[in-house]
Hints:
The protein is an alpha/beta fold. The protein contains seven helices and ten strands. It has one domain: Zn peptidases (Aminopeptidase, 3-Layer(aba) Sandwich). Helices cover 23% and strands 18% of the residues.
Amino acid sequence: MRLSSLTGLVGVFITSALAVVSGAGCSRVVKATEIEPVPHPGYADIAPEAARSPEIIGFSHQGRPLVVEMFGCGPVRVYIIGGIHGDETEGRTDLHELRMALAESPLAGELTVRILHDMNPDGTAMKSRGNAADVDLNRNWPAKNFRPARNNETGLSPLSEVETAAAHADITKFDPALILVMHSIRSGPFVNFDGPASEPAAVFAGSAGWRVVPDMGYATPGSMGSYFGRDLGVPILTLEYKRGDESGRVLVQGLNAMAVGNRLQARHKADGPRNVDEVGN
Ligand SMILES: [Zn+2]
């Protein structure tokens, strides 16, 4: 069953993620025509009323909203971050196409997809890798391999940045079975992964015609992959679009390919301890 062929409507949760986890039904039905494009680049120019997405989980250093949307009603929870490095926006059009597709045919019986549009809207507005404090938000997580860098690109301590702290709280509450984070790199496109994600990475890459690159070739202390993938065992895919090329259209097919055939397993609370307070830094 292909995502594009489904005709069901999607419910968007506007209540808490906890309600989804506990099995509550879809509370609101939307049509694709209701979906506005994510302002690009950044949110600097939008009026307050334009932030019409279901939920704002926090604000950036410069006060831009961190916006999330939820699609679907299924038992398998997928968390997608549309951007973490502000100068890597190549996947934004692809993300919008995914949102449109999910609104029409969300695999509602299989997936619940929670999308954080842009974890670094200040960086996006400035076209900078880091946030407004020049911290790399993919080095600011409470992974065991976190080490504060002298130039402060990691932040002084894990979750020192408002954007990271907000995303950490939201992801932890949502308790996803899979995390996707969108980046770009000159050597792209390819899929990198951490944690028990070799099969989803292979399936996604196969559907996209991308490569799988298990190792980035350089250390990523304090990264999301280190924290969620290696420390907590949550499968996480790093989607590296080709830098400067916005033509990649892979999210809809990739998500569909992973969803069919039970490639993704629903994550249950009984799977193991998720007490993140026990994870050191
Ligand atoms: Zn990146």
